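Example 9 (inverse folding). The structure is encoded as follows.
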């Protein structure tokens, strides 16, 4: 696993002990289990009887990094004032006022689902050109 995996592994992340599961090699819960066994004294364990140990496991979390976005101040510069007002009100309704401004400035990374919400708000505000977020980064999708 890359170094970023170990530095971003949340404290108390629930782990799975089923090494024989067909999805174990690509599951974050199993990968975290292997890493945490080496360094932690206490583990938060997913209930073994609730794991289905097959491809349909409800706890499965893919261990491939996902593209998260940070900030959309550049989008604002490409909008008319009326479009930006509509865009902003849609997203404040979705995220809340403080959370909207944190996301706009790039303090909070936007998951792929949240990126879709922002892009949908652009369309609702009448923006037809494809606008990009300020920055992109690869992160593990621990909870989304």
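The amino acid assigned to each position is listed next.
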């Amino acid at each position: 696993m890359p170094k970023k995996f170990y530095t971003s592994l949340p404290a108390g992340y629930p782990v799975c002990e089923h090494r024989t599961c067909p999805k174990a090699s690509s599951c974050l819960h199993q990968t975290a289990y292997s890493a945490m066994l080496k360094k932690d004294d206490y583990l938060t364990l997913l209930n073994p009887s609730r794991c289905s140990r097959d491809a349909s496991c409800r706890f499965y979390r893919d261990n491939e990094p996902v593209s998260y976005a940070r900030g959309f101040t550049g989008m604002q510069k490409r909008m008319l004032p009326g479009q930006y007002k509509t865009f902003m009100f849609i997203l404040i309704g979705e995220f809340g006022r403080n959370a909207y401004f944190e996301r706009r400035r790039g303090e909070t990374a936007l998951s792929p689902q949240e990126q879709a919400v922002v892009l949908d708000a652009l369309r609702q505000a009448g923006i037809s050109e494809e606008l990009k977020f300020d920055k992109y980064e690869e992160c593990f999708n621990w909870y989304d």
